[in-house]
């Protein structure tokens, strides 16, 4: 078997707002992949829904020249993450291996400091144990932890899929190729607005999109160094 | 497992290709299973319809399979019976007068429709009626009739969005439910990315901003019912620019008057016509909400004529004819069925894949008509409103436990059959409807000879044999069992290369339907608009994650709302979250107000899919069903003209806050 050198990859995501239709397929796909419980009408109305990704819809203009502006919002996997230094138990950590922000569920003691410090409101808290009646729990993904009450959770860039892709490549004796690893949201996205890949490879699709004239990062001025890159929509090309 | 199947390995997932049945588009799925359980639905990357993509409805199919409220075995008047007893009852029914046997089927699956068509032909019974909310919202019969008027062939056309650079949609909500949403969403994405970075444009003409018009580069809001006039006006402007002449009925429309009737600035229409006429590959789409009016056929024809004017027929980025069988019935056919039920002419009614008591206008009186039928046999997997009124409930498997096929209706650039196979063993004591019918038929000498199939799989293989023999597919096989294994592995059958027929303008100048404008609104009256959401035909309401997936435009979860323009709401004294009563000539509902800035001030809209009185814990007692408000009037093709509904809206003095995602973040951007 050929020797494969393991280089650390810098995972990133690019979202093209010009082709994002706001359809919410990513939201459902994320929930079905990551064992996210549904909370019901009352709890979701209180803002306690456990969406790891959501579509923010802002209206622009007045009738009849009005238009919604969608932006999918998820954990921005900050290089300099405000959630990490405030956790008293190191449950919000930057992983050495994948170089992404991860939440260690069995360390979390539920102080919610991390969520309060997240400028993207992308962390969600399990206020209760949410019942999934039998036999509905049959579809739970065995590759993802089922969380309990009192635990903070958030987007992991589908870390289970990153590992599966790396193991598959290793078993085949080759390096991970661009497009091998696709998180659930990007896989479902009907218009391919979400692209995932390695930002350290200048040839990867995500790197090419990151270099687009239309690219920007959410709340860049905070210095969080997000790994999620957005491309301006509405036909605004050339910056 | 005590005896592990050979394909199964502990700790490893197995993937099966199958076909989605959440709507009739026939998208290919790959389902991840793990130790005998269905885990995650993914798209089939090789499939010509969805190319590996999947929508919210398809994704939650596992919540249907593992729904805690499923019907777990055959029931007669609410008590459990055995399958042998059930089959004997069906057999008895088929023995009686064939004229009194009726089948009401949904738009999926196709193989069951084919089997029932064979069965009714052999029996001498009337052919099955095939209808449902998807057909109603797309006004499919109107579209196929317009295709016949314009191209001489009654076909569901395929629209090549991907290669187009200017799409003009008349209410086609192709990002939500129209015909084949994933195929057309991919088309939009290709069109937007453009060739040589020439970004394509999307213009949508509809009274209320939908996800599709929200994504558009230009949205124009005509008064409901004037879409036909707008299409005719645009045809005149485009023809004038291109120096072409139009048929008399279209030429008689004055563009300025049409713009005034629609409430759209004439300059905007000129701008759209100029863009359309000068685009490299312009394309016009006749969506359901534009056709669901008294003048719907004229609207559909005017839109197809727009395509003919710019000569995009059979060209990349244009209109193609599909081989899909346009077998769907119209609303008028359903009315005919109900009349026969009420007249006591039907002794046994079989219902599969549709929930008419919920999906059809309440004014039709389907529930009351069911009481006149001695034996109502429902094949529902879930305890829906129709199953509750049935004498015999013979639960079918859910899609992830089923065999079958779906002909792709109009979402693929080639002829395609999509394969369905079980990905898990059936969870409950359910049985395939096809198997129930075949077992019952076997007990009757006349039918046994006409339907010589041992079971559903044998029937499927017999129907697939012509595909194998055509040798047109991307794989070949010497005999049916080899073909069958590839069919299951790839998830269907389709040719290697794209290829559809080009339409020919047969009778462009033939007389068509009259272009009558709608009557003006009376004082206090508003147009009423209803549209399907991610809950589809309403059957998605029992999937908790579809309920908790926010509506893209309002971000509301788990309930119904009524969209009212803020100005109109202010006049009526209605605030956000007020419970309002909406009254039409047919009925009334109560729903919570959502002040929606992207709707015509003279129109209110309620999404379709909620308001169930049955269907299990996640669906019941939630929101309102707008079917209560719909009229029974039909257009010339026999499709329900639900777009002509008019209502009055009054506050009730009560409040009920909606559960909405945007609560946390505010409605307007900070920049504004």
Plain-language structure description:
The complex is a heterodimer of chains A (239) and B (672). Chain A is 18% helix and 18% strand. Chain A is α+β, with helices and mostly antiparallel strands and 239 residues long. Chain A has a four-stranded mixed sheet. In chain A, a hairpin with a 6-residue loop joins strand 4 (92-94) and strand 5 (101-103). Chain B has 672 residues and is α/β, with parallel strands linked by helices. Among the domains of chain B are: 75-131 and 329-393, Rossmann fold (3-Layer(aba) Sandwich); 136-320, Dimethylsulfoxide Reductase, domain 2 (3-Layer(aba) Sandwich); 526-664, Barwin-like endoglucanases, CATH 2.40.40. Chain B contains 24 helices and 27 strands. In chain B, the strands form seven sheets. In chain B, strands 5-4-16-15-14-6-7 form a seven-stranded mixed sheet, sandwiched between helices. In chain B, helix 7 links the parallel strand 9 (166-170) and strand 10. Chain B starts with 12 loop residues before the first strand and ends in a 12-residue tail after the last strand. Chains A and B meet through helix 1, helix 2, strand 2, strand 3 and helix 5 of A and strand 3, helix 2, helix 7, helix 8 and helix 23 of B. Chain A: Residues 11-41, 66-98 form the 4Fe-4S ferredoxin-type domain. Chain A: This is 4Fe-4S ferredoxin. Chain A: GO terms for molecular function: 4 iron, 4 sulfur cluster binding; metal ion binding.
Short description:
Chain A has 239 residues and is of the alpha+beta class.
Task: Compile the SSE list and pairings.
The complex is a heterodimer of chains A (239) and B (672).
Chain A: E1 11-16, H1 25-33, H2 40-45, E2 53-60, E3 67-74, E4 92-94, E5 101-103, H3 113-117, E6 124-125, E7 152-153, H4 159-171, H5 184-188, E8 194-198, H6 205-210, E9 215-216, E10 228-231
Chain B: E1 13-19, E2 28-34, E3 37-43, H1 56-59, H2 61-65, E4 75-76, E5 79-80, H3 83-95, E6 101-105, H4 110-123, E7 129-130, H5 133-138, H6 140-151, E8 158-159, E9 166-170, H7 181-193, E10 201-205, H8 211-215, E11 218-220, H9 227-242, H10 248-251, H11 255-262, H12 266-278, E12 282-286, H13 288-291, H14 296-309, E13 319-320, H15 331-342, E14 348-352, H16 356-359, H17 366-370, E15 375-378, H18 385-388, E16 392-393, E17 404-407, E18 417-420, H19 433-442, H20 445-450, H21 456-470, H22 480-490, E19 492-493, E20 526-532, H23 544-548, E21 556-557, E22 561-564, H24 566-572, E23 578-584, E24 588-595, E25 603-608, E26 646-655, E27 659-660
Parallel strand pairs in B: 6-7, 6-14, 9-10, 9-12, 10-11, 14-15, 15-16, 20-25, 22-24
Antiparallel strand pairs in B: 1-2, 2-3, 4-5, 4-16, 8-13, 17-18, 18-19, 20-26, 21-27, 23-24, 23-26
Pfam families (chain A): Fer4_7
Protein name (chain A): 4Fe-4S ferredoxin
Domain 4Fe-4S ferredoxin-type (chain A): 11-41, 66-98
